[in-house]
Amino acid sequence: MIISPTQTTAGTTTGNTKASDPNTDPAAAQDRFLKLLVAQLNNQDPMNPLDNAQMTSQMAQINTVTGIQQLNQTMASMAAQLNSLQVMQGTALVGRSVLTEGSTVTIDDKTGKGGFELASAATSVKVEIVNANGQVVDTVDMGGQGAGRHLFNWDSSKYAGSTDGLRFRVTALNGNTQVGTTSLALSKVVAAGAEDGQLMLNLSNGQAIRYTDIKAMV
């Protein structure tokens, strides 16, 4: 379920109260048990009355079952409240730019943007911009960079081709030794929601990601 900030929380009802399920309602279960117990006492053999220990055991069992049902209902209610809270927190991210694993180039006012992580320091870092056909259309020379996360900007004003499908790849060297890199796509959060108890975010690049997939907010 994905909602935008202008939507209301789903499932709100007005003027109607949902009836409890008699199969899971603890009060209904207790009522059924007491009726069965009274019927059992009324129809017991006077010469062979119900054993006190057996009656106590039955009462303990119904108390245990009722307690588990009440606990399940409490946990379900807490899970629903947590989902609502997550969605509220997620809507606060709408409009924010985030970095996630990926190599898509984001074009913003004729400037291509993205990021990357270096496993260690590099003396030479180059970002190649690649079109949908796999051809390199430009290269951004980043020079030497330290280990960690970095952003890059690419002037796309001189690029006359289609920006659809533009991607980038990073090459990093420390002397003659290749340095490990992780490409990071920069995109804006456009909607938030909850799915299977997890906060989900819709991005402007069309991706739907978990909140835990975010590497950083910019």
Automatic annotation (TrEMBL):
Pfam families for the chain: FlgD, FlgD_ig, FLgD_tudor
Domain FlgD/Vpr Ig-like per the UniProt entry, residue ranges: 103-165
GO annotation (BP), single: bacterial-type flagellum organization
Renumbered residue ranges of the record's region Disordered: 1-26
Stretches with biased composition (Low complexity): 1-17
Keyword Acyltransferase: no
Keyword Ribosomal protein: no
Domain FlgD Tudor-like, first and last residues per copy: 86-215
Superkingdom to which the source organism belongs: Bacteria
Keywords: Bacterial flagellum biogenesis, Cell projection, Cilium, Flagellum
Family as reported in the entry's similarity comment: Belongs to the FlgD family.
Function according to Swiss-Prot or TrEMBL: Required for flagellar hook formation. May act as a scaffolding protein.
Annotated protein name in UniProt: Basal-body rod modification protein FlgD
Organism phylogeny: Bacteria, Pseudomonadati, Pseudomonadota, Betaproteobacteria, Burkholderiales
